[in-house]
Amino acid sequence: MKAIQGSQNRFNPSVNAPCPGRILIIQENGQHERNRQFRECFCLQRAFEHLGLQSDVWGKGHPDSGMRFDELVGGYDAVISLENYDTGWHPDLSGVKIPTAFWCIDAHMGVERYLEFVRANRFDIVFNATEHFVEHFRHITGKSLWLPNAYDGFLIDKLFNVPKSIPLGFCGNTVNRQPWLDHLTKRWGLHHDRMVIGPDMVQAINSYQIHWNRNVSNDINYRTFETLGCGTLLLTNATPGLEKLFKLGDHLLTYEDRNDLDEKLEYYLGRPEKCKKIARRGYQHTINNHTYVHRAEIILRALGISGPQDTQDRRQRNAVHQLLPDRRGGATRPEIPAREVRLDNLPIAIVTETMNYISGGVRCIAEVLNRLKQRGYEVACYVTRPDLRCEWLDVDFPILPASRLGAFKGIAISPYSPTAKMVARCNAAAKFYWVHSYEPRFPELTGRSDRWRVMSEESYRLDELQYFAVSSYVKMILELIYARKTLSPLVSGGVDTALFSPGEKAGRRLRLMFLSREHGFRGGGDIVNALQIVREQGVELEVWVMGQTLDMRNIAHRLVAPLPQQEFAELLGTMDIFVHASHFEGLPLPPLEAMACRCAVIATYVGASDYLLDGYNALVVPPGRPDKIAAALLRLSRDENLRLKLGQGGLETVSGGYTWEHTTDRLLEALAEGLERIRSANRTVQYQIPVSAGKAEVPKAQPPPQIVSTSGQNYLVSAIVSTYNAERFIRGCLDDLLAQTIGERLEIIVVDSGSQEDEGRIVSQYQQRFNNIRYIRTQNRESLYAAWNRGIRAASGKYITSANTDDRHAAHAFERMVRVFDERVDVALVYANLWVTETENETFERFTPVGQLKWKDFDRRQLIKGCFIGPQPMWRKSVHEKYGYFEESFESAGDWEFWLRVSRKETFLHIDEFLGLYLKASASIEHRNRQLSEQEASRIHRQYAGSLRPPKGPAALGATGE
After folding, report:
1. CA distances for 674 relative to 211, 417, 428, 660, 712, angstroms
2. What is the Cα–Cα distance from 119 to 201, expressed in whole angstroms?
3. N or C: which end of the chain has fewer CB atoms below 10 A?
4. Cα separation of 650 and 612, whole Å?
5. In whole angstroms, how large is the CA radius of gyration of the chain?
6. Average pLDDT score over residue span 173-195
7. Which of 152-156, 550-554, 571-575, 774-778 has the highest mean pLDDT?
8. 863, 813, 808: which is closest to 837 by C-alpha?
9. C-beta separation of 147 from 101 below 8 A
10. Would the CA dihedral through 906, 912, 917, 918 be positive or negative?
11. What tens digit of pLDDT does each residue of 17-28 get?
12. Of all helices (H) and strands (E), which one includes residue 687?
């Protein structure tokens, strides 16, 4: 167990100026001394400190709890309140000026008191450990997120010296579980550890082969994560949300009822190897996704807090591990659907800086181009530096200056951010970016200038390129942070198995090798520290270091300079153990090369979780943990059978999916998929509609555009986007709509009303990547309602919504509205509350609120007094068959008139939830000409209310106006 370091008592009342990334955690110190370090406040504090931020814990029972809250809070950037046993002492946070958050962990024990607590303290955001209660708190705060429980990887882990001697155990209390415990004890000999807490709990769970669990209500309890973090197989009751956090049956087991539980136990208690296999996968997935560090990163992102080691993009990158189903495999590669590789006889070129530099990226380029050439493809490499040599690898293709790229008309690939824009702007028929790593982090890790970060960020946002990645880790970054619709195949690096193969290993002291490279994040210092621990245990290894000189702290070793491939492979083949301890990688090749040499590999999971499987082909350790590396070395030094097992598993992993032939196959599959997207986009009809001096109509001889749907699905919702001189909003608008949870059944129809800006080019770029976007342009400008009608007539969705270019939506907004229609066949239109911002291009997940539009529940008698439907309703398309279309002579009140027309016979429903973000802008239609708005309001009032007095002000207003 790692010793606990850090302080809870570092208050300095004289410090009143905010310190960047300084966080105050409020929670009482816990009821049991032995379990205190496992209290959420200390777990979260360690996580924040691991991320480079300072955090302090304050509350009942802490040494500084007597300090006045108003005196100490001024020195912090945010306050986070955690679950407390006794809320009577809690300070009033309603007037605190910095962001405040509450992580509600036990709402399932009685939600009403927590709702009242949140209401009184007016938290900016509430995190809920139970997804079921998110909506309860959203009604109060407007911003409520699911943040499941976690486990502390600093305190809880596999204990390799504790044998799993207990077939079936349970560590916990008997609340709502006694009948189950009685049954399990009587029939299956369950071992029950009562009130075993702290380090004793970790030891107990480590001793179980199977840990039985029963969650209460809809809560996914701590025991779930703690069990998996101990490397023990979890058998728990089926609970809503588990399937979003884990792959059931692959990471853990669930049961539905007592009969199902008995069947599972009868099968698995007699199959310990199957139990170990599932437990290994569950352990790896949990340390990758469900520690307090992962939860801390999500909290920081939601609060907008950053620290010296934690830029915004890094937080977003790590947050992708959080509340999504696992998308990372074990030792086997993801299944890629078989497809005919069609490259239309196009030549293939890779564009990079130089080939005369020793690196894994250069090796990828050389190995793949050589094999493509052997398969009969015309290939070349273009370089931006004047050096046209490659002295360290044999190449069978021309290396050409980038100045000649302009004449290239084939398939161009950038493998590196400095050449991405060059490829995007070239004349190639198809343009790709093979993303090898998360390059915006390079300045933080290597000391490069911030210009590199800006450049690499831009390289991920080039709509001319199609993107594919080396690993699931890189693929998730591209998809979730940069909204790239990446190509399916993962094009990882590989190994030349004719070069890297097992050598003679027996008859001498165990040999260990690691690579010493330039920067500290490579983990060389961690390996040295681990070797010191091993030496103190009396184990002597023959240590080989290849690379740069490193402070080895008097550890005997042999240092060799970087060797040519042939010599390196021969030396690696003689090694027994290979250690790779990097803190940051896209997809590391050295562990794969060591596996091909049948070495027993110790490696961090960073970037390598696609191919690492703990206990099968490697011993997997967390980054920055010399103690874990040391424990793995001690195991391998004492267990020859384990070394042989890992060596064999590694060799099978490489030969089964990680040779350069596999890499070349996947590259061709990615290119073929990209070319098919281009062909599909070219089949999509784009057209312009001529507009006469009078009313614009679609010429009858010209059919409406048809979009090619590769999925074959019918669209459920059609979103009508009317744009005029809104180029600065159109990307954010499309990204917002494409992020909807029903995105696959959403049709987006962009009606360009004679815009003088470049929306058409941007939409065309999106059409190359997404087949659910349609584009209609008129030569002259027409009214908003004429544009809407044009889009509605072309729509194929069952439901219609208007999507203003400058407004944004919650990701689940459309799904929520559709659910109402499914449940209420009598409802013709639904509308929801909106947040208000004055900052352009913010997102629903991250915005600066200046107010709310909390609409009234629907009353058709009140609708005549003002339009309280708002700008983001959804309605059934069928109403247009009954009541016609929007009156196109209106400038700003046409929707109000139409709602009054329809509501005379149809039912509307208000969803009292915040599902949208409204940009308050003086240039909007309803604000820029108030006189016209009032005239239109009067016209509507006369038409629908006879002699009633017309309302004052713009027709679009009607919220309760908070």
Report:
1. 46, 19, 13, 21, 19
2. 36
3. C
4. 9
5. 31
6. 90
7. 571-575
8. 808
9. no
10. positive
11. 333 468 999 998
12. strand 687-689
CA nearest neighbour of 239 among 253, 228, 250, 229: 253
Distance CA 327, CA 722 (A): 36
Residues facing residue 802 across a β-bridge: 720
End-to-end CA distance of the chain: 52
- Kindly state the helix (H) or strand (E) to which residue 191 belongs, with its residue range: strand 191-193
- Kindly provide the residue ranges of all beta strands, DSSP E only, lying in 737-795, ordered along the sequence: 746-753, 773-778
Residue 116 DSSP SS3: helix
Neighbour tally for 915: CB within 10 Å: 23
Give backbone dihedrals phi and psi of 184, rounded to 5 degrees, phi first: -65, -35
Instruction: Read off the amino acid at residue 174.
Output: T
Whole-model pTM: value is 0.46
Look at residue 937 in the predicted model and tell me its pLDDT. 76
Task: State the DSSP string of 640-655.
Answer: HHHHHHHHHHHHHHHH
Q: State yes or no: pLDDT of 209 exceeds 90.
A: yes
pLDDT computed for residue 85 by the predictor? 67
Between the CA of residue 252 and those of 72, 180, 290, what are the distances in Å? 44, 19, 14
Burial (CB < 10 A; 0-12, 13-18, 19+), residue 70, is exposed
Q: Cα–Cα distances in Å, from 50 out to 41, 58, 81, 153, 435?
A: 14, 19, 20, 11, 28
Q: Among 2-16, 536-550, 659-673, 716-730, whose mean pLDDT is lowest?
A: 2-16
Q: Which helix (H) or strand (E) holds 217?
A: none
d(CA 123, CA 101): 5
Distance CA 560, CA 574 (A): 15
Paired sense of beta strands 166-171 and 849-853, if any = unpaired
Q: Kindly list the strands in the beta sheet with 411-414, ordered across the sheet, starting from the edge strand earlier in the chain.
A: 399-401, 379-383, 348-352, 411-414, 430-435, 466-469
Cα–Cα dist 312/457, whole Å: 12
Question: Residue 514's closest CA among 594, 596, 620, 616?
Answer: 594
The H or E element spanning position 344 is none
Angle (CA) 870-876-881 rounded to 5° is 115
Strand order in the sheet with 125-128: 54-58, 22-26, 78-82, 100-104, 125-128, 144-146
Burial of 118-130, coded b for 16+ CB within 10 Å and e otherwise, reads: beebebbbbbbbb
Q: Are strands 100-104 and 144-146 parallel, antiparallel or unpaired?
A: unpaired
Angle among Cα 701, 705, 707 to the nearest 5 degrees reads: 155
Residue position matching structure tokens 């290119």: 671
Contacts of 914 (CB under 8 A, 6+ apart): 138, 142, 810, 832, 833, 834, 835, 852
**Amino acid letter for position 337:** P
Half-sphere exposure in the Cβ direction for 565 (13 Å, CA): 20
Q: Looking at residue 945, what is its pLDDT? A: 64
Q: Is 665 helix (H, G, I), strand (E, B) or coil?
A: helix
Packed helices 199-206 and 222-229: angle between N→C axes, nearest 10 degrees: 60
Question: Which residues, at least 6 apart from 819, have a Cβ–Cβ distance to it below 8 Å?
Answer: none
Q: Which two tokens stand for residue 867?
A: 């339009």
- Beta strand pairing call for 558-560 and 717-723: unpaired
The DSSP result for 572-588, as a single string, is HTT-SEEEE--S--SS-
- CA–CA gap between residue 845 and residue 883 (Å, rounded): 37
Q: What residues form DSSP beta bridges with 212? A: 235
* 344-385 pLDDT tens trace: 789 999 999 999 887 778 989 999 999 999 999 999 999 999
